[in-house]
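writing this on my phone so excuse typos. first protein, seq and then structure
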Amino acid sequence: MRSTENFHALRPGPVQVDDQSYNLTVHELGLLRVPSGRLEASDPFVNLGSGAIVGVPPGDYPVMVTVADVSKEQDGSHRREAYLSVVLAEGEAVSVAAAEPADEPLEEGQCLAVFVDAGTVGFADAEAVGTAMPDGNWYEELFDDGTDRSWFSLMDSGTHLIEGCANIVMPAATAGENVVLAHSGWGDGAYPVLSTLDADGKPLAVHIDLLVVGDDPDEDGGEDPAEGVEAD
């Protein structure tokens, strides 16, 4: 089970987990617009528009990526994205729980998950995908169109944000509707969507845990990240 002791999103600095040391850095990725209050977590290159949906208050929220140095020497030579987070409110996190879905509640022990098949995770307003993404072949016309404005190129750019991440306005957006993306740590798989909560149980942030730092919660009796979400 994840707890504030073994969950390290948005907590920069060194951390020791078992025999592995990690130096964590936190990077701002700009704001995400969520006017509908339906926050979608997906692999945007595979299932944008059919990912896991979390209910949040409508608004614009900062998105952060926590990056872990996983090199043995801790010299910055091997970095992996460890958590992608949408910050909902300020406060002290005292607990970690499965994020509450916007629609039907999960059964006990279940957890929303992002199913990744293109090495990428992202957040978007679920309703905006239907109105602000164009018709056509997204892969050829947006994701990998051969220009420096393609989604792949922006993620590979070290000047757009940081290499491995992007904040992209949807092509048919009328009010800045956007997608915020990051590489998914070690790559493809199923990754849990979690919330950090304050002492009153108020959600402070929604996170995609990329299972880079610490034990996989599925190994110690925690939530099953593959349950609670259907992949189309």
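second protein below, same order as before
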Amino acid sequence: MAVDEHTTAPPSLRERRRAAATQEIVDAAERHLAEHGPAALSLRAVARSLGMTVQALYHYFPSRDALVTALVTKGYEDLADAVQAAVDAPSDDPDLPRLVMAAEGYRRWAIAHPESFQLLYGTPLRGYAAPADGPTTQATRRMSEIFERELFDGFSAEQLATADVPALSPALRAYLDQLPHYGHGHLPAPATALLMNAWGHLHGLVALEVFGHTSFLGDHQAELFRMAMRNLLADIHRRIA
């Protein structure tokens, strides 16, 4: 019987052991991150928590930056999973727009994982730079795809191109036109400007809450956030013919 040349061979025992060890290291790094915050992350501390030497850990992550990249990638993937799950889950309000559901999923994950949120969106770690177009970039694309889809679903490219936004300078319009997009195909510059405005508003409110700046609102923060997202979505849709 002929063997399909495209059949993928199962991972070897050595590969499975390496994958398991790598996952164990990432899990330990996440625990350390949750306990001590991003600034205290070090290979030595993670290795110590696993009973390993730093030299042994280097076989899996050759530098702190490699481990940070793995953590950032996983953080974005977990956040995108939470946002998509929020969109797919039944809502307590049958009329709640899916964009608002996505935003609330984003907020809930950030509140539940403040240290990971800080790693993704807080003060950059000294000396760390994510690899260009590497796994962290790939992981953020799912987030972009979800929010672009839920914000602009049902609108044509022509409608998005004529959205009512303040006049864009030729330089800004040209820059926005060449940005990559992952959910709605190519977005015209006015739609990209609206998307960035929505992202800044959404993320700003979440960051204020995660870092404790709106704690005076107490249990009312979720209701006010939902109202803000509803208003944001209504304003953007009013601007699209």
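The radius of gyration is 21 Å. thats all i got for now
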